[in-house]
Specification:
With 429 residues, this protein is of the alpha/beta class. 22% of the residues lie in helices and 39% in strands. Helix 2 runs antiparallel to helix 6 and helix 7 packs across helix 8.
């Protein structure tokens, strides 16, 4: 069936100035396959089911809207962790600012290098999980990224990785339009932690394909902040093996538009997937969208989705989360919670939680709530001498605590708590 003209024209205009990067024959084939998927489905429109709460117009224009640079004076994120830093400036790898691409139990290469080789393990992963994640819901921006992203990293964890790997995204041009694609393979019994930070570009597209093998563990902590005018669409596509662990947490502050998609497929018995996030928005031009799709396709798997949003002055938060339990995926334990704290009457929280279950021995639940600060708790704090603005900040931090608890490393959790407290302190009335 031919695409509607509006969708086809928008897609053609968006990709008109893009070119497929060069690479080995298998990589070129993967990119052409992604381009075929993109042109068949077309880029999203506001009427699409999974885009009706988020207007994709800012992601569709041929050129990005300018985004002024911002330096809020905060110290570098995760500075005390001692991670291997890999730096990208407006979507381009910066070798001089990066650490050597080495570490215990890990192999790291640039995406362009891996995709130029005739024989490379990336062949079994590049575009593979993204393609699998296109069903039953189409994800056009992910296909576009697979087709056109020219930079990124390829990481294979073969043991217990120390120290963590930190991907740093710097924004230096007010009109930068960046695409990055990362491949992560965590082999059987291995474990690693991946950190991400920075605004990256005026408009940013990032895709990460993560293959977590049997008995392996992958921890991911990301902070998206600083620049107020940036636009970003990110996708994480993960496949989990037997008794593996996947944990991902995102903290988002500032930004005109942020759309974070996470698609997880549990294919091995006893796998566990935790996806969590916290977002703080201040102003009518703040729009934050978390869209999550978790598929249980094995026995005895567990998933948790925990998302908290704090919104004020007309900010908008969106959560779309689904748990799909396939036939035979008995003993599934699926949990999903999305909540918003609305600090005024102008902000909005739009939620669409879903369960689709085709097995009979499962324990699945979902809940979604929004509301104001508890006046009783506020009165209690004020009656004990806590100033009103500080009391509200304490209640906000208590509201976010369940999401922050999903971070396994307490050092990382404490770093993010301090940044949240600083963000709140700067916005006290």
């Amino acid at each position: 069936m031919a695409l509607p003209k509006v969708r086809a024209d928008a897609t053609a205009a968006r990709i008109a100035g893009l070119r497929l990067p060069e690479g080995a024959a298998w990589a070129a084939e993967a990119r052409r396959g992604a381009l075929g998927r993109l042109t068949a489905m077309g880029l999203p429109q506001r009427r699409d089911e999974y885009w009706r709460y988020t207007d994709p117009a800012g992601l569709l224009s041929p050129a990005p809207a300018p985004a002024a640079l911002l330096d809020d004076g905060d110290p570098p994120v995760f500075a005390g962790v001692g991670a291997v830093r890999i730096v990208f400036v407006d979507g381009v790898f910066d070798a001089d600012a990066s650490d050597p691409l080495t570490g215990t139990g890990i192999e790291i290469e640039r995406l362009s290098v891996a995709l130029s080789r005739d024989i490379h393990w990336a062949r079994d992963l590049y575009g593979v999980l993204e393609a699998r994640g296109q069903r039953p819901v189409e994800r056009p921006f992910a296909a576009m990224n697979t087709a056109f992203a020219g930079d990124g990293v390829v990481i294979r964890a073969t043991g217990a990785v120390t120290p963590p790997v930190h991907l740093v995204y710097l924004h230096r041009s007010e009109t930068s339009d960046a695409m990055l694609h990362h491949l992560i393979s965590v082999e059987s019994g291995a474990a690693m932690t991946l950190l991400e930070s920075g605004p990256a570009a005026a408009r940013f597209s990032k895709l990460m394909e993560v293959d977590v093998a049997d008995g392996a563990a992958f921890h991911h902590v990301r902070i998206q902040g600083r620049d107020h005018r940036r636009r970003a669409v990110t996708g994480t596509f993960a496949r989990l093996g037997r008794e593996s662990l996947f944990k991902s947490f995102s903290l988002t502050m500032n930004g005109v538009l942020t759309r974070n998609e996470c698609v997880i497929e549990m294919t091995g018995d006893g796998a566990s997937a935790h996806v969590a996030g916290a977002a703080l928005g201040d102003g009518a031009d703040f729009h934050h969208d978390d869209t999550v799709f978790v598929t249980h396709d094995a026995v005895g798997c567990q998933s948790r989705q925990v998302f908290k949003k704090v919104l004020r002055n007309g900010a908008v938060g969106v959560f779309q989360g689904k748990i799909l339990v396939r036939p035979g995926a008995q003993k599934t334990d699926g949990y999903q919670i999305s909540q918003a704290l609305l600090l005024d009457d102008d902000s909005q929280f739009l939620a669409k939680p879903e369960l689709e279950i085709y097995a009979d021995d499962v324990a699945c639940s979902h809940g979604s709530t929004s509301g104001a600060i508890d006046e009783t708790a506020l009165f209690y704090l004020r009656s004990r001498g806590v100033p009103e603005r500080e009391a509200k900040d304490l209640l906000v931090m208590a509201f976010l605590a369940e999401a922050l608890a999903e971070i396994a490393d307490e050092r990382l959790a404490e770093d993010l708590r301090s940044r949240l407290e600083g963000w709140l302190a700067r916005r006290r009335r």
